[in-house]
Give the backbone structure.
Amino acid sequence: MRTFATLLLAAVLPAAAQNTAYRAPRAFDGHADLSGIYEALNTANWDLEDHAPQPGTMWQTGAIGAQPAGQSVVEGGVIPYKPEALEKKKANFANRRTNDPEAKCYLPGIPRANYLPYPFQIVQTPRGIMFVYEYASANRLVNMGKPEEAGSDTWMGTNNGHWDGDTLVVDVTGLNGLAWFDRAGDFASKQLHVVERFTRTDPYHLNYEATIEDPSVFTRPWKISMPLYRRVEKNAQVLEFKCVEFVEELLYGQYKKQPAAAPSPK
């Protein structure tokens, strides 16, 4: 009888624990504390949708430059492009080696900044929440006060935030439409509107959701979601990856002065 009770208790306790909602630690303003260094551990930056392994754009590097397989992070699996926009996405993919803004070290835009294969840090204050990204030293400040209208279009947009319980909601407008969503050529226009949700689900993860709307490119709004993993190794920090110096040949190599032809022998 004791053995049966022990087994029953062992079965019930995990279920009870799962039904107990996690409550994040509090920041000094009483809201959930989201501060920390996080990183996405998926292949969304290669392609938001399902994708098989294939050679990368630098096939000369063999497996080092190859694309790994990955599962879709898009709700429903497929991005709802308009037909003409889907053709542009295909053209982007065909020319991704030179046209992907990531390859050119341009700022990553939203939502891509959050699932590039680099860590980023959230620094939380009552008046604003700072996101600091390792890639290209990108950053953005989420205004937690009275919402501000976008003054001009930028790579990282105008970010207004508020709390929905323990979830940070960030409304992003004023994006310039130049950033891609991934290396597969998925894109939007300057009409892009992104609403993000960051929720701390346990001590080591944030759940990230982004609802994407652009009536000039998509037939309806659509959503991506993924976990973000907290970096917990000793002395975890966001380092510098200022990539401008690595792209000069890609951007300006075509303008390089060619050596003069050798004089013909007499």
